[in-house]
Amino acid sequence: MNIFICEANEEQRKNTINIINKVLNNKNIKGNIKLATSSPDKILDYINTNKASGVYFIDIELGESLNGIFLAKKINEIDKNALITIITSSADKMDLVFENHISALDYIVKDCMEGIYKRIERCLEFIDNKLSQISQNKCLIVENSENIERVKYDDIIFCETVKKRTIALHTHKKTIEFKGTLRDIEGKLDERFIRCHKSYIANKEKITSINKKDRILFMENGSQCLVSTLLINKVISNMF
Fold this sequence. Notes:
There is one protein chain. With 240 residues, the protein is α/β, with parallel strands linked by helices. It folds into two domains: 2-136, Response regulator (Rossmann fold), CATH 3.40.50.2300; 139-239, CATH 2.40.50.1020. It has helices at residues 10-26, 40-50, 68-78, 94-99, 113-137, 182-186, 232-239, and strands at 2-6, 32-37, 55-58, 83-88, 104-109, 139-143, 148-152, 156-163, 166-171, 175-179, 193-197, 200-203, 207-211, 216-219, 224-226.
C-alpha cells in the first residue's frame, strides 16, 4: 500500500512515521510511506502526477489555506479508492468529517502515543485485509485463438511484447500469448504494475531485486525484465 501523511506539527509527523513503520514491520504488512509533509499541495501534486492510489493520514488543522477537511475532499476527487484516516488534536471537529461527506476509516485524537499506536495498527490491519481481498479477486481477461482465460492480477509476474501486436503474459505456471499491445492492457492493470520498458510491464510485488548497472529486474520466478534508462528511477522510487 502507498501511504501518505499530511501533518502540520513536525514532531507529531515524525511520531506518525515511526508508528506506521513499526506497525508495517511488526505485522508484516506490505506498504511504504510515499510522502510525509505539512503541505497539502505536495500531497495533491504527487497523486496527480503519479496517478497514485493510497492510504492517507491527515491532520485537520494544517495551518494553511487548504485545511485537512478540504484536502480530504480533494483527495477523494482525484483518488476514487482513497482510504483516509483523520489524526487531530481537535476532538470536537468530528462533525466536520460527516458534514463534508468524508468517508474516513477512523478519527484519531492525539491523546497518548499508546492510544495512537493501537488505532493506527487497527487501521492498517483493516486496510491490509481489505486490499488483499480486492487484490485476490481482480482478473484480466485474455483471449487467443484457443482460449479465453481469466488471469488473476496476483498471479501475473510480468507482460512483454514478443512480436508486433503480440503480448506474452507470464505467471508462475505458464505463459499465455495473445494479440494486443502493452498500451491496451496498461490501462486495465492496477497500481501494483509498472511500465519499466517499452516492451515490459512488471508486477512490482514480484520483483526481488534490481540491477541498476545493467538495468534488469529480477522476478521471483527467476525470470528477468529489462528497465529503460528513462524509467529506472521511477521503478526504484516505486519499489522502495
